[in-house]
Amino acid sequence: MLGCLLGTMAGDAYGTLHATGVSYPGPALAPGAALGDPAAVVISDATSLTLYTVDGLIEALEWANDGVAADETACLWLAYLRWLERQGEHLPPNAPTPPPRWLDQQSALQPAPHPDPDTVRALLTGEMGTRSRPLNARSAGPGALMRSAPFGLVPRIPASMVERLTVDGAHLTHGTSGATEPAATYSGIIRSLVIEGSSLAEALGRAEPPVPDSSPSAAPTAAGTLDAAVEGVRAGAAAAASPDEQFAQALTQAISAAGPDASPVIAASLAGGIMGALHGTGALPASYLSSSGIPGVVRTMTRTLVRATTGA
């Protein structure tokens, strides 16, 4: 779990720096050397929404551990509304007011510089998007994809439930198969690596390919972004020997593979999540294993998720 979530954060930070025009001395450079102090690094909403997905799942599990049935998708919606408030937005009058939780108080998790517009737009309606009442019914963007890794980290549930939770969670903000199916594909890859212990080839080969969306869009798509991440992971694993070298190569190759239909920042975060799920924390730069700043928040959320899944 920890390797996947920290890998997502490190890949996000690497991609965010790339988007600002930072020049890298070489593709084999360990990401930590280019990223600097992780306690002060700037990340996108790929990390913050991933953590709020973790928190929504934790809340549902906590209710279940107390013997109270909970709607997992509703818990996720409330978590995303809290995320929206953290971005400086005001909840619409028709939206519920979620009670604050520990994650909301963490100053290290700053508002994202440019949050996903589809996600913000959907949440500002105050409506809970569902399969039968879709929001953003024409968007095939990667906003749901980038937050879907946590669904693949929950143990002792069948793969079919992981897929259902992922798709229902994606439908909260995105209403097309072009957005929801890549999210389910990605959580399935993470589950294969973390829960089932599959090899990288098995995890990537067993995953269903993303379903393309025919809606015209000039923006990056979920399918294109996932394709870039997977291409980067495959290239990194094939070109390097040690886990940390594979991690660094996967991020740079994912960014290189991101064409006009892909977000390089999200592609790097997805590639980081996959490599972290595959190799654990041993693939990450040492500076990203600290207990302060955003890594510390990720560590605490991971421990809380483990406790919630074990009922301890």
Chart the SSEs and their pairings.
Layout: H1 2-19, H2 31-35, H3 45-65, H4 72-86, H5 117-123, H6 159-170, H7 177-194, H8 200-206, H9 222-239, H10 243-257, H11 264-279, H12 293-310
Helix pairs in contact: 1-3, 1-11, 1-12, 3-4, 3-12, 6-7, 7-8, 7-11, 9-10, 9-11, 10-11
Structure write-up:
By secondary structure, the chain is mostly helical. 54% of the residues lie in helices and 0% in strands. It has 12 helices and no strands. The protein has helices spanning 2-19, 31-35, 45-65, 72-86, 117-123, 159-170, 177-194, 200-206, 222-239, 243-257, 264-279, 293-310. Helix 3 (45-65) packs across helix 4 and helix 9 crosses helix 11. The longest helix has 21 residues, at 45-65. The model is unreliable at 23-36 (pLDDT under 50).
Overall radius of gyration:
18 Å
Q: Could you report the average pLDDT, rounded to the nearest whole number?
A: 89
Unreliable parts:
23-36
Instruction: Report the principal-axis shape.
Output: globular
Query: So how many helices?
Result: 12
Give me the count of strands.
Answer: 0
The portion of residues forming beta strands comes to under 5%
Measured distance between first and last alpha carbons: 17 Å
Helix content: 40-55%
Task: Let me know the largest β-sheet.
Answer: none
Structural class of the helices, strands and pairings? Answer: mainly alpha
**Helix-strand topology string:** HHHHHHHHHHHH
